[in-house]
Here is the input.
Amino acid sequence: MWIIKKAVKVFGIFLCGFIVFLMFYLALTQDGGYHKDIKIEKEQDKVFQSEEEKKLLDLKNSVVNTKPTSKLYASKCSACHGRGGEGRFDDEGTVIFPPIAAKPYDFILNRVNNYKEGKISNPLMAALLKNMKDEDLEALADEISKFEIEQ
Ligand code: HEC
Here is the structure.
């Protein structure tokens, strides 16, 4: 008989523990209505903020071509030729780095290969292109030839 009593007792303790666990679990995972309201408000704040940010972004976009470019272009070429291939000029309008956006594919590839092989002497471009693969240069020429020029 004592075995049955003991079993009932153990089961009771186990059940209590389980119920307490369940209560904690529910309390921690369920969201009360109150909390939900706060969340919605925050969500709206977010939308508002990002709209302000969007206006700022639009303003920036109207100044420079910020079309997303490949990582390769951004890391290898954009520092000199500009984020959208627009080139760089000094205050008098003299070319520092020539614009390359929307130039024909063959022109870009040809130039780049000429720099790489030293046919056109330019230490900057030659050093930069030395370790670049042909297929990367082809991809770049293709990408740059498709850049849009914003007025
Ligand atoms: C360190 C600065 C610099 C970087 C980085 C650079 N270039 Fe140049 N690039 C120049 C300069 C300077 C010239 C002009 C050279 C000349 O007049 O011979 C030039 C010229 C060119 C031209 C010829 C433009 C023309 O109208 O004659 C092309 C095409 C070109 N670069 C493509 C690229 C590509 C593609 C990359 C990225 C892989 C790149 N450049 C990275 C400085 C740079």
About this structure: The chain has seven helices and two strands. The longest strand covers residues 95-97. Residues 71-145 form a domain with the Cytochrome Bc1 Complex; Chain D, domain 2 fold (CATH 1.10.760.10).
